Amino acid sequence: MRRVVRQSKFRHVFGQAVKNDQCYDDIRVSRVTWDSSFCAVNPRFVAIIIEASGGGAFLVLPLHKTGRIDKSYPTVCGHTGPVLDIDWCPHNDQVIASGSEDCTVMVWQIPENGLTLSLTEPVVILEGHSKRVGIVAWHPTARNVLLSAGCDNAIIIWNVGTGEALINLDDMHSDMIYNVSWNRNGSLICTASKDKKVRVIDPRKQEIIAEKEKAHEGARPMRAIFLADGNVFTTGFSRMSERQLALWNPKNMQEPIALHEMDTSNGVLLPFYDPDTSIIYLCGKGDSSIRYFEITDESPYVHYLNTFSSKEPQRGMGYMPKRGLDVNKCEIARFFKLHERKCEPIIMTVPRKSDLFQDDLYPDTAGPEAALEAEEWFEGKNADPVLISLKHGYIPGKNRDLKVVKKNILDSKPTANKKCDLISVAKKTPDTASVQNEAKLDEILKEIKSIKDTICNQDERISKLEQQMAKIAA
């Protein structure tokens, strides 16, 4: 007998907004005209770009800091122009990068328990773009590798640990870059641009591997993201301004694997992808709904699941990594929806009767451990994400502080544009300052050890004396 309805464990996923007292209230969400999500989330903090006079700022709130946020609450406010994009480091829950209209990228270290004073000094300022920086994206598997893209149509890949621009892709895009996405192991990037092209690029070889002209015919902004199997998913507009989504194989981009028309709204569709469940959530800017689809190997490849609808339109959206979800409630996604004056979490769950851990909903997921160091990646190595099990929930570990070791300026090459120079910078030997620092560190560690040994000996002596006293008293 033919199956009438496609079998899928995600057919009944439903979304629910949390109660009012669990929202973040009285936040002046940024009004800047830029199509980024304005919000970034991890298992510790939610960060939101806000309106700020005389520069750019964003809020960083511990997840439990719900309710009304005081006007005097400290912000991260080192930029001199509006902040356009923010992204949490996947390997350190206290490190966040921001790109701004002031043409700089800044990387910040947030204190473990959140901000008590406004933060004006970043750990490092990355300067190299000649126009505003609208996109920042951390490498998924290599530590301290950050990508930025600006309105100068250039993509720069930085080693944040040294503050250097090591790869500069400044001649690949002839028009504004709408978005950039890393693939699963960070060996390739895909981009969507105002020239209506979708490109797949190998950043280390600095070459375009595949491209599709007029992936979507319409003039409004597109988005392109990599899926876990290497295919590319795009959202855009048809010539008649209908919103579309499409699936492409980079090995043959002549025709899409699938192309679906959706509706005639004019908000840009922001895609959020979960590689563990192969679900894509589409949040339109200015829409009041989240649509979600499952990607499979069988036709029509992109299967509509459901729509979460609400009354208020969304100004932006944050998406929690899998390790920040509540596995006991069968939660498979959590969004942080930005309204004009508040941030409202929306929880997506799969209804299950059992309270036991549902291992079919939670395959091992990308953990916070980096698979590679920055230098290894720049030298050509690749590695898949280091996976963790969520069976007993995710317990955040201690994050090490981000340390930036600046190279000696006199040693480094004067230009940041020559391709061969850029790659060779990565292979320089550490300067004498870092060697001295290591020697000093060893000295301090030895001293700490000797003090600890002394304390142990004193403890033993005290306990013996106490025993003697007890005997005499008896």
Question: In words, what does this structure look like?
Answer:
The protein is mainly β. The protein is built from three helices and 32 strands. The chain has helices spanning 374-378, 419-425, 432-473; strands at 14-17, 24-25, 39-41, 45-50, 56-62, 67-68, 76-79, 83-88, 95-100, 104-109, 124-127, 133-138, 145-150, 155-159, 164-169, 177-182, 189-193, 198-202, 207-212, 223-226, 232-237, 243-248, 258-261, 269-274, 279-284, 289-295, 302-309, 316-319, 331-338, 342-349, 365-366, 387-388. Strands 1, 2, 6, 28, 29 and 30 form a six-stranded mixed β-sheet that branches. Strands 3-4-5-7 form a four-stranded antiparallel β-sheet, with no helix packed on it. It comes from Mustela putorius furo (European domestic ferret). One of its GO terms (cellular component) is flotillin complex. WD repeats lie at residues 76-118, 126-168, 170-211.
Chain-averaged pLDDT: 89
Question: How does the helix and strand content classify structurally?
Answer: mainly beta
Radius of gyration: 25 Å
Number of domains: 2
Which architecture of the largest domain per CATH? 7 Propeller
Biggest sheet layout: 6 strands, mixed
CATH topology of the largest domain: Methylamine Dehydrogenase, Chain H
Task: Choose one word for the global shape.
Answer: globular
Uncertain regions spanning at least 5 consecutive residues: 408-430
How many helical stretches? 3
